[in-house]
């Protein structure tokens, strides 16, 4: 294995399409940014697709080109990890609608020569999956050994065997759901309104000025980040501790450590993400309802697939709590699909799937090895 194959190759491809979206629009061409790790074997049977979450990207196990930080899932993907380039050919693509190289509101509309902005067509999770399938066709991969994802990545991992039942042998869904609740949609709407209330949003036409609605996007990120953590985790990490100052100040400065932390999360986010992309992707997550796509019965989504399933939830995740995973398990049981399920303890809430979780790694590693 070459060093490049081990540590990842960042690539970009423009596919002619057309890609028919759920909204009826034909998107053409289709740009996809992606990374690969490892080597595809002779019969192309060792491919594993990693699906990223809302604010993620294709830099799953390599440094981010903007922030310089390590890949977002180096605890899961890498040498000696459950998804290992020594055993797997790993593909992670940036979802369409995002801002890291794949077709989205920040890319150029070939019809006008200008960024799409809010004229980009509305997207669904299934549209993202279909674009990934186009990429796999381009790479010569007919069947996936496994598709793996957490949060919004788990939605894609669920949608894969439902959309392409013959192309997936296993699916790992971590801290995810088959549809958003009213509460999930409500939190997203608060974030979207924060973006659109920023005067610099300009109806989504801010690219030419180079002056993005950073304040609104930062607030959206702050609100969302609260849902990724548990109350116990916030209390343990911050409590009501004040910032260290010579003199306590009253007012609207960041007096509490939790305030400073959230502000940092918001400000650092706007350096690497696009406001319009945030609007599009959160809306795609809200539209996601796998049961509705299959006649109102979630079990129908899995009746045609022969895939094995592994679901993992965390006991302090209140964004996508364990009952959401159990509902998927019950549907898989009703469809006669083989499924493993475990609820793990973690103080970190929804973000636990991105953090150090040895038990999760053992579960995923065992599941993938059993089906190799």
From TrEMBL:
The keyword Zinc does not apply. Keywords: Acyltransferase, Amino-acid biosynthesis, Cytoplasm, Methionine biosynthesis, Transferase. It is found in: Cytoplasm. PANTHER family: HOMOSERINE O-ACETYLTRANSFERASE (PTHR32268). Coiled coil: none annotated. One of its GO terms (molecular function) is homoserine O-acetyltransferase activity. The keyword Cytoplasm applies. Pathway: Amino-acid biosynthesis; L-methionine biosynthesis via de novo pathway; O-acetyl-L-homoserine from L-homoserine: step 1/1. Substrate binds at residues 221, 351. Its EC number is 2.3.1.31. Pfam families: Abhydrolase_1 (PF00561). Homodimer. Transfers an acetyl group from acetyl-CoA to L-homoserine, forming acetyl-L-homoserine. This is Homoserine O-acetyltransferase. The active site is at 151 (nucleophile), 317, 350.
């Amino acid at each position: 294995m070459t060093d490049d194959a081990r540590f990842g190759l960042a690539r970009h491809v423009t596919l002619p399409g057309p890609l028919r979206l759920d909204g009826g629009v034909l998107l053409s061409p289709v740009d996809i940014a992606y990374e690969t790790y490892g080597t595809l074997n002779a019969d192309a049977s060792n491919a594993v697709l990693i699906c990223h979450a809302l604010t993620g990207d294709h830099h799953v196990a390599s440094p981010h080109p903007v922030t310089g930080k390590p890949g977002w899932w180096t605890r899961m993907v890498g040498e000696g990890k459950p998804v290992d380039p020594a055993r797997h050919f790993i593909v992670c693509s940036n979802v369409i609608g995002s801002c890291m190289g794949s077709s989205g509101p920040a890319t150029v509309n070939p019809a006008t020569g200008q960024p799409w902005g809010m004229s980009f067509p509305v997207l669904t999770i299934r549209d993202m999956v279909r674009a990934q399938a186009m990429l796999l066709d381009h790479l010569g991969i007919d069947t996936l050994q496994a598709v793996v994802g957490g949060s919004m990545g788990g939605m894609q991992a669920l949608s894969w065997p439902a959309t392409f039942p013959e192309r997936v042998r296993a699916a790992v869904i971590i801290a995810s759901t088959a549809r958003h609740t009213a509460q999930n949609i409500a939190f997203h709407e608060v974030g979207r309104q924060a973006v659109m209330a920023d005067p610099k949003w300009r109806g989504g036409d801010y690219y030419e000025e180079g002056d993005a609605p950073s304040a609104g996007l930062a607030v959206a990120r702050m609100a969302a980040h609260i849902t990724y953590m548990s109350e116990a985790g916030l209390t343990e990490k911050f409590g009501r501790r004040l910032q260290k100052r010579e003199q306590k100040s009253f007012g609207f400065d960041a007096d509490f450590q939790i305030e400073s932390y959230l502000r940092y999360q918001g400000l650092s986010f706007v350096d690497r993400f696009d406001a319009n992309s945030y609007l599009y992707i959160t809306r795609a997550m809200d539209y996601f309802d796998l049961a509705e796509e299959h006649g109102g019965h979630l079990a129908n989504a899995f009746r045609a697939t022969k895939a094995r399933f592994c679901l993992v939830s965390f006991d302090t995740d209140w964004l996508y709590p364990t009952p959401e995973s159990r509902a998927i398990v019950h549907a898989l049981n009703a469809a006669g699909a083989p499924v493993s399920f475990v609820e793990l303890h973690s103080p970190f809430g929804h973000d636990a799937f991105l953090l150090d979780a040895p038990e999760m790694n053992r579960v995923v590693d065992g599941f993938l090895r059993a089906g190799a």
